[in-house]
Amino acid sequence: MKRIAAEYLYTGVETEPVRNGFVEYADDGTIVAVGVCDDPASEPDFRNGIIVPGFVNAHCHLELSHLKGKFRKGTGMAGFIDQINELRDFTSVENKKAAAAKWLDILWKQGVSAMADISNCDETFQIKSQSPLYTRSFLEVFGTEPEDCDAIIADVRKLAAEAASYGIDAAPTPHACYTMSPDLVTAASAEGLASGFLSYHSEESDEEEALLVSGTGALADNYRGRHLSTPPVTGKPSLMYFVDRLLKVHEPPFDEHILLVHNVCLTREALDYALKYLKNVWWAICPLSNIFIHNALPPIALMRENGLKIALGTDSLSSNDTLDMIAEMYCISRAFPDVPLGEIIGWATFNGADFLGKTDTLGSLLPGRRPGIVLIGNIAPTGELTRESHSERII
After folding, report:
1. How many helices (H) does the chain have, and how many strands (E)?
2. Domains of the chain
3. Whether 210 contacts 216, CB under 8 Å
4. pLDDT, tens digit, for every residue of 205-253?
């Protein structure tokens, strides 16, 4: 039996901290007990900082790690897509794999115990299969031309079979409304729903919304300039378009685990429509990525008012300077100071584990769980995060 204590401890399921809290754990990392120290001064392993369960990164593109520092900021979605097309394959497969392996190791050491990761190819499969960090891989597909749908689905099924050969959990998933024909959105969604899990980039930018609502804007101009088909103009938020495509897969309700990622332009109309049909939906936010591309943030107040299950991700090193969950949490705490730190920690731990269906082991410092134990250091005297705060894995 081992024991560690700190000034503050958050279980991942309670928003209030345990002051001078301890956690006891077995040699294999299983949590045995959590409580309050009788005498902090006599604790043999008392740390300055905050103890939390291992993080769950709810949205990452590990395979884009080789793009760190390559992208211009503030270009909007159309400009970002142009950079992806220009730079995605600027280096060798060996360099891509090396960068992905480096950052997966960094994520683990910083305390990330699980991750919902996007894969467009097989370059990270072996790396993830050998890591102690649990990943569920979402095999994202693109294709704006309707006639390509069947071939794209056939290819992604082969990719799913390859992922299975490495023993990692993976299944196809749609990317976003603006990169896919309507039939491909539905076909890819059907594949993901059959696995029980689906991830989807939703309402990430004003450009995306303008494309669906009125067929105008920078993204519409970009696609037409490249002679690519665009989705139908619906006059409604893009999330409503996505739900309508899901309704072509099977009758509601949808009990599968669905993750809507980004949500920068989320409106009450759109969330009400989604909640009408989606019974197990989580809403991932990646604040530093949103600032990097659009200089915008999701409507956190609206999301909290409606009791949405918020999860936290980092996105990729093409749209972020780092894959650091503490940096994301600090960004939220600065932009939305009314959100308690304990709530943000819950987004970064329990809610992500809940989406992945892993709360029996991950996401909380509760007896019988094995989430990993993480120390957040360099905190303010009040227990809040600072710009210098950082995390390290204890177990």
Report:
1. 14, 14
2. 55-323 (3.20.20.140)
3. yes
4. 999 999 999 999 999 999 999 999 999 999 999 999 999 999 999 999 9
